[in-house]
Amino acid sequence: MKRMVPVFLILGLAAMMFTSCSGSKDTPSASSGAGGAQYKDTLNVVIESEPSTLFPYDQNEFYTETIIKLIYDTLIYRTNDDKWEFTSEVAKSWEYIADNQVRFHLNDNIYFSNGEKMTAEDVKFSLETANTFTRVLFYKQLDKVEVVDDLTVDVYTFGPNPALFSNLAHPRSSLISKKYYEEVGKEGYARKPVGSGPYTLANWNTGIAIDVKARDNYWRGTPGTPNIHFSFVPEAASRSVEMETGAADIVTSPDYNDLDRMTGLGFEVVAKKSARIAGVFVNYGNVPDLKIRQALAYAIDYPAVVEAVYGNMATVADGIFPNTVPGYEKNWTISYNLEKAKQLVAESRTPRGLSLEVMSYDQTETSQLAEILQFYWKQIGIDVKISQNSFATVQKRQSAGDYQLYPMASQYGTLDPSRATYQFDGKIPTMLNLPPEINAEFKSYWDRGATEIDLTKRLAIYKEYQEKIVEQVVYIPIAHKMIAYITSKNVEGFYGAPGGITTLWQVKVKK
Asked: Which residue from 11, 23, 390, 65 is spatially nearest to 232, judged by alpha carbons?
């Protein structure tokens, strides 16, 4: 079959802004390490967008969660993102009392940044509050949390919950101060957070940067660098420029087509398989004709799109799960077939004059993907318009079901299949606007998978679940993404997490 490739694919979408806009912060340091090495007082990190909030329960931005991990602690800690290993954090130990009840014993030396000591009441309040927010990974999964004494809590779930520990270790399960939250609420916490983590918010220059500073006497030890400066640079190419000019020590989500060049310039490039998958959510209620949804899928030249947007940092997706998640199935068999796509449109209830909106946001890859998809879908007679939004806006619109087509890269950092299906779980019916009977079926699969302890049985449930999602074409998988970071040669102690949520509190930068 002859491929139709738009001009901007051939050109590699090379029209980029190379204007550096963030600036760095660098205060000379007198600190020294082993062997007398001198270290900077400030670690400069360039991220791709500005956080919508620093309140942990009301966001799902992995770049935001990198900052949240510095300001807050979680009940337990995942020692390695590649494995199911957990260790103590706020909880020093735990044990199962029953299949649906875990008892956590808390450390006795943890204080919030406002000087208040953390108690079991704060843990209970944190988890119960988080349980009411739709973007929290254990949303509505906790039955109750009981205080046993000042340093002991019992967490109850609705039956067995195999994903509980992964969810509790995630930044969206961070612990907050009950007293402070009751004083300022979610809105106050969003811009002036109080946590028990190694850093506290020092400054938020809207649209430009966030600064955090190390706390004195942090209970786990002294942070690696006294200050961390996060600058917001949406253009991937511009983030590389920040590294070249010395304004950055670490760059997240760099321009993948620029990695070889950056390596040649002497920078460290960390690249690995990730828990990310890029695809398109198709709102059933707003695109109700199955033939149209199928036509949209057949109209895409997947290898060409992956090459243009992600280069060698992704492979063509052959399933709706990231290929690092247990239960991943190669169940997506649709491939580029322009004639079939046109035929499906002709057989649909709307053969002519169909107009659809692609909801996009201000992130380089997402914008590129939206533009390329617009080209392919126009080839089958669909008038596609792209609306650009802030990421905070698209989050709200997705939850409300106020969209038709939404290309995005989903991040499933817990590597649990229940997480990889949460956007199809039926608990927020408006998200996909599914008919009641399909919504109920999806919810049933998710509920059974999220409570089955036997791994073989659990994965069999998710296999059927994925087949149902594929059958309805409410999601079009595009690419299994890799993840990359760029650091200077002087950075020490950096670990590039496959989930994208990096741990920076022990990172140092030599002068």
From this structure: 23
